[in-house]
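Entry 12.
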Amino acid sequence: MVPIDQNLQSMIVDYVERQQSRLIGLTRELIRIPSENTAPAGAERACQEHIAHVLQMSEWDAVLYELSEVKGLHEHPLFWPGRDYTNRPNLGARRKGSGGRSLVLSGHVDTVPRGTQPWTRDAFGGDVDGNRVYGRGANDMKAGIAMNLFIAEAIANLQIRLRGDLVFESVIDEEFGGVNGTLAGRLHGYNGDAAVISEPSFLRVCPAQRGGRVAHITFRATGGVLTEDKFPAGVNEQLTHFLKNVPEFAAQRRRNAHVHELYTHHADPVPVSITKVFTSPWGTSEFYWQLMPGETQNQIEREFFSWLAGVVRSRPEIFPTPPEVEFPIRWMPGSAIATSEPLVRELATCAEAVLGTRPKIEGIEGPCDMFVFQQGFSIPAVLWGPRGGNTHAADEYVEIDSLVDAATALFLFVCRWCGVA
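Predicted 3D structure (C-alpha cells):
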C-alpha cells in the first residue's frame, strides 16, 4: 500500500486544528434547523437549502431535486411506497476531477422527531457543554453531514485539485426504513467508485450493517359473556403467552443464524426485542429482530411464521383466531463488503495515521441505507463517523473531539483516494 504523504497529512491536520470551530459551528447550524421525519411526511427542505447555500459559497454546484424528478424511482425493486415527498428535496453536488478514483460522501439530513421525553436543554439549540454538542440529530447524523460539508469547504479554501470526482450528497427519508432518498441519489447519477456514509460509527470503520425486521402482531378476542364458569378468550392471555415465548424465538435465532465475521465480537449478534405493546382496542405487539448479512427475507420470515404458528398451536384454546401480522416498514437486509476491499484498508490506514492506533473494523449494530450502495448498485461503501450518545432519545449529543478526529481522517482519506493533482 502506498504510504501516506506526510506533507499532505500535516497540511490537513493543521487546517482542521485551526478551523475546528467552523466544524462545530456547522454542526450547530444544522441542529438549529429542524429536519424531522414524521413518516410518511417530513420537513427537510429548510435544512437542505442551508446546506446548498454553504456549498454554493464554496463554488460547489449544489442541486436540490425532488424525488418525483428521478426517472425509474417508483419502478425500482428497492422502492418503498407510501411516503409523501412533497417539498422534501434531495441534495447532490459533484466536484469534477482530472481523472482518478471517484468518491461519494453521503449522509441523511432527516432526524427522528424531538419525541415526548423531557429534554434538559433545547432540542434544537445546538448547545455546547464541555466536549459535547447537544440537539436532535447531533449524533444521527447532523454531525456527519457537517463533517462532509466541512471537507467540501476545506477543499475549496485550500484550492486542492482532486484527480477523482468528489460527490457530496445529503438525502432525505432514511429514518423509519425510508431509504428512498438514498435510492434516488443513485438513480439520479450521484455515484462514484466508492462511498463513505458518515453515520456515527464511533471511529470504527464499518463495512457491514445488520438487517432488521419489524412486525406488528395483533391479537383479537371473540367477545361474549361468561358461560360455564369460563370467560371468553381475551387478548391479555394471548399476549401473555406470546411474550412468554419470545425468549424461545431469540434463542432459536442465535442457534440458526450464521454469524458474520464482523459480528463475532457481539454476545448476541441477532437480538430480538418487543419494542411496543398496545392493549386497546385489541392487543398489538411491535416485534423487532435483527439479522446477519446473507440472511434472506424468505428465510427470515419463514422462520418467524413457523415459530408464531407453534406458539398458537401450543395453546389453541386461547387463540380462537390466529394473530394478524403486518410489516409496517420495509425489509431492511443485512449487508457487507469484504474487509480486503481497498476502501476499507485505505480508510483504516488514514484513520490510524490520525488516531495513532488502528481503528476497529466491525459491523454497525443496526440497519441503515448502506445496503442500497452495496447490494443495489455494487458500490463499495463503509460507515465512518464520530462518537456520541442518546441517539433517537432526549439529550442526544455528539462528542467534539471524536468529530474532529473523524473529520481529519476522512479529509485525509478523500485526498488519498481521489488523488491530489
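Annotation: Residues 211-326 form a domain with the Alpha-Beta Plaits fold (CATH 3.30.70.360). Residues 251 and 272 are 9 Å apart (CA to CA).
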